[in-house]
Design goal:
Elements: H1 4-24, E1 32-35, E2 53-59, E3 64-68, E4 73-76, E5 81-84, E6 90-93, E7 104-110, E8 117-122, E9 127-131, H2 134-144, H3 148-160, H4 166-184, H5 198-210, H6 218-224, H7 229-240, H8 244-262, H9 267-273, H10 279-290, H11 294-300
Parallel strand pairs: 1-5
Antiparallel strand pairs: 2-5, 2-7, 3-4, 3-6, 7-8, 8-9
Helix pairs in contact: 1-4, 2-4, 3-4, 6-7, 8-9, 9-10
């Protein structure tokens, strides 16, 4: 069972990798690998398998290699994406399994529009998964203008068609990734009541109620629940998998995203209403999250 801490771990990791993908990749046809073959030209390959759902691999810190059923070895570099279509034989190959740290962000998208989508951190030893809630899928569909699986279907069809337009495929996949990154801003696993410490639940409640106030400090939060700043930081991370600062920034970003969509307030006013006294710093934080400025995000729409 995925804990709140695990969910936050995956979510932060996914935000980082998706941001890198938009910033450094998905600009050229070679940034996208599509694996769609269902026949096996090789035998005896350990781990070769197929799924009835879509599977995407986004390398985090090093090249990930995916072996397809026809024996081809596809190298996917950081900033690129491998798309495995339903029924395609494949296996992710780790050339240096002894290297510590995470290798890859994975994404599973079911063929059925009402089935859950999942994000996972993967290396050669373990996998931690986060299932996107229904609300997130609804917002993702709103952002894309169609279901994620419909976009993936068109993408794979275009890639295997006789008259393939690789630039269009890259553009569609970039939209797909940008939509997922925007959607992640609507889910905050650390808000769950699964925390076993009443003091941490109180801190989360204060953060949610007062995230728009610029003067929130670790010391003031600690005093409210009878903890020192250092002890609060330790307990908060242990219970939620994230820091107090990261949780506060997340809530402020969510409020800013809502105001960008629902109002015509200037960017400077939105920054102030969300708890940032410096609009330039707000824009920098927003850009790191979404790979674009607040004004561009507003024009594109969530």
């Amino acid at each position: 069972m995925t804990t709140v801490r695990d969910a936050n771990t995956v979510r932060r990791y996914a935000t980082e990798v998706l941001g890198v993908c938009l910033e450094r990749g998905l600009r050229r046809p070679k940034d996208v690998v599509i694996i769609s073959g269902s026949s096996a030209a090789i035998s005896g390959q350990q781990g070769l398998h197929r799924h009835d759902h879509w599977e995407l691999f986004l390398p985090a810190r090093r090249t990930v290699r995916v072996l397809s059923g026809d024996g081809a070895l596809h190298a996917v570099r950081v900033g690129g994406v491998a798309v495995v279509t339903p029924g395609a034989l494949h296996v992710a190959v780790h050339r240096v399994p002894q290297v510590s740290g995470w290798d890859c962000l994975g994404l599973t998208v079911s063929v059925g529009a009402h089935e859950p989508a999942s994000l996972w951190r993967m290396n050669c030893r373990t996998t931690v998964c986060l299932t996107l809630p229904h609300q997130a899928r609804v917002l993702w569909r709103t952002w894309l203008g169609e279901t994620p699986e419909a976009l993936l279907s068109r993408l794979s069809h275009d890639a295997t068609a006789a008259r393939w337009a690789p630039e269009l495929t890259v553009a569609r996949l970039r939209l797909f990734v940008a939509g997922l990154l925007a959607t992640l801003g609507t889910t905050t696993p650390y808000e769950s009541s699964e925390s076993g410490d009443d003091r941490i639940r109180q801190v989360v409640a204060v953060l949610r109620a007062r995230s728009h106030e610029p003067g929130i400090t670790l010391e003031s939060l600690g005093r409210a629940v009878g903890l020192s700043a250092s002890r609060l930081q330790v307990l908060f991370r242990r219970e939620t998998g994230t820091t107090v600062h990261q949780a506060l920034v997340e809530l402020r970003l969510r409020n800013a995203e809502r105001l960008l969509v629902e109002t015509e307030m200037p960017i400077k006013a939105i920054a102030a209403a969300s708890g940032w006294s410096n609009p330039l710093y707000f824009s920098a934080v927003f850009r790191r999250r979404h790979g674009m400025s607040p004004s561009l995000w507003r024009r594109l729409g969530p």
